[in-house]
What does this fold into?
Amino acid sequence: MCNNYHYFEYLINILSNSYICTNRTVKTRYFIYLSYRGTSYHGWQIQSNSMTVQKVLDEAFSTILNEHINTLGAGRTDTGVHALFFCAHFDSNFPDIASDRDILFRINRYLPKDISVTGIRKVLPDANARFSAVSRTYKYYISKIKDPFLDDSSWFLYGDIDLNLMNQASELLLNYSDFTSFSKLHSGSKTNLCRIYSAGWEEKNNQLIFTVKADRFLRNMVRALVGTMVEIGSGKMDLMQFEEVIRAKDRCRAGMSAPAKGLFLVNIEYPEEIFV
It folds into this structure.
C-alpha cells in the first residue's frame, strides 16, 4: 500500500512539472517603428472611451498574431500630435517575427490609413522603448501663408516674426536643465530636469521650423516653448524676460501652448547593443 502511494505521488510530481514547463513560454521582445497622423486620435496612450494610437495598434497586432499583445510606447504624444517616427515594444510567443515580411504587410493592411508600421526588430529581453531611449527629436511647423493642405499639420501665423531673436532664445535653452515653466501643470512627472542637446529655427518654403533634441521632454514642453518663443519673435517678450521665465519655474509665466497640430516627433535614438 505504501509503495503504491509513493508511486502515485511520483506520477503527480511528473505531471505537475510538465504542466509548469509547457506554460512557462519564453517570449521574445520586439521593437516596432511606426508613423502616424495624430489628427483623429487622443494621443498615443490608451484612455477609456477615447480612440488612441496604442489602442488601434494593440488590436491590430493581437488580431494578426492571434495572441494578446500589449505595446509600450517610447512616450505619450498629446491629442492631435503627429509622429514621423515612433517606437514601441511588445512581447510575443513568436520567436522571429522580424524576419517575416508577410507579418508587416498584414499588419499594415489591417491598420487604418493614418497609421503605418515601418519596421520590426528583435531586441534584448530587458530593452525598453521608453527607458532605453537616449534622445528624442521634435519638429514644430509654423506656416506663414494660409494653405489648406497644411491646415492639419502646421500653425498658421500672420505677420512678421523675427527668426534671429527666436534662434537666440533657442541658444539660451542649452544653458538650463529645469524646464518647469514649460511643463503641463499637475503632470505627475517625478522630475522636470531635461538635457537639451540642440535647438533652433529655420525658414523653408514659407514655413518656420523649430527643431529640438533632448534626452527627454516634459508633457506639453515643446508646444509651450514654441508659444513663448513666438512672443519673442513678435516683440512681446525680450530675451532677458525669457530667461526670467525659465528661472521662475512657473508655467503661468510662460506663453501659451502652440496648437498640437504643428508638432511632430521625428526621431528617437537607441544604443545599438540592445538589438539582437
User: Anything to note?
Assistant: Strands lie at 28-36, 72-73, 82-92, 115-123, 135-143, 155-156, 196-204, 207-214, 263-269. The chain is about 30% helix and 25% strand. Confidence is low (pLDDT under 50) at residues 18-23. The domain at 28-131 is CATH 3.30.70.580 (Alpha-Beta Plaits).
